[in-house]
Amino acid sequence: MENRPLKLSSLKGKIVAIDGPAGSGKSTTSKLIAARIGYTYLDTGAMYRALTYYALTNKIDLSDGEKLTKLAHILPIEFKTSEDVNRVFLNGVEVTDEIRRPDVTKNASEVAAHKGVREAMVRKQQEFGKHGSIVAEGRDTTTVVFPKADLKIYLNATVEQRAQRRLLDLMRMGITTTLEELQEDIKNRDHKDSSREHSPLMKAKDAVVVDTTNMTLEGQVDYIVNLIRTTFK
Ligand code: DC
Questions:
Q1: pTM above the 0.90 mark?
Q2: What is the pLDDT of residues 20-54, one digit of tens each?
Q3: Could you state, in order of their start, the residue ranges of all structural domains in the chain?
Q4: Whose CA is nearest to atom 2 of ligand 1?
Q5: Which of 70, 132, 138, 153: disulfide with 44, CB 3.0–4.6 Å?
Q6: Whose alpha carbon is nearest atom 10 of ligand 1?
């Protein structure tokens, strides 16, 4: 992978938005791209995860959209990057690892489906990106959060490949599960994320589709940095 920082004067203040289904490689790819072009990385999924974690920890009914919406407005969620790790803080307490737990992953779709929750989160995300120079990733960053993004990308990969990647990630975290279980989980999440009423996952008309099934992480990053280079030249 070419690690040279990309320096283009035309890069200043732009918004790169990347959407795609679970396990398509959005998070890792977006983080590396942001580092290469000197942009801030915004992981919108981490915000829904942080709220889900809070709700599970405090035994809040996940179907209570009103209560979750109130929380989405007031709960302080912050990001801090240190040693190349994008750390997430909720109420000033670090929850970077906690929000990746399988129970949080499983329940985040339900929390993220509430209209009020989405509105609150989208507002925070737009505020975060108001000065541009941001790589935002999630499910609706190309369609709802930043519909006027300067470059929109839809990352995708087969369910099998996405489950395989998730398995490796979880193994690294010391969590044991099976490939079959993860495939089922991913299919369920795809269905929930794509069929929900409010801001479902979909490809924006003007998004560039990048199928990462047969790409290495380095290949994905290089490919998208090249897209940025040609789009913003
Ligand atoms: O990308 P992720 O797996 O960390 O996302 C966690 C959950 O949040 C997942 O169920 C989809 C949801 N999400 C969403 O609804 N909208 C976003 N912009 C980002 C994530």
A1: yes
A2: 998 898 999 999 999 999 999 999 999 999 999 99
A3: 15-231
A4: 45
A5: 138
A6: 109
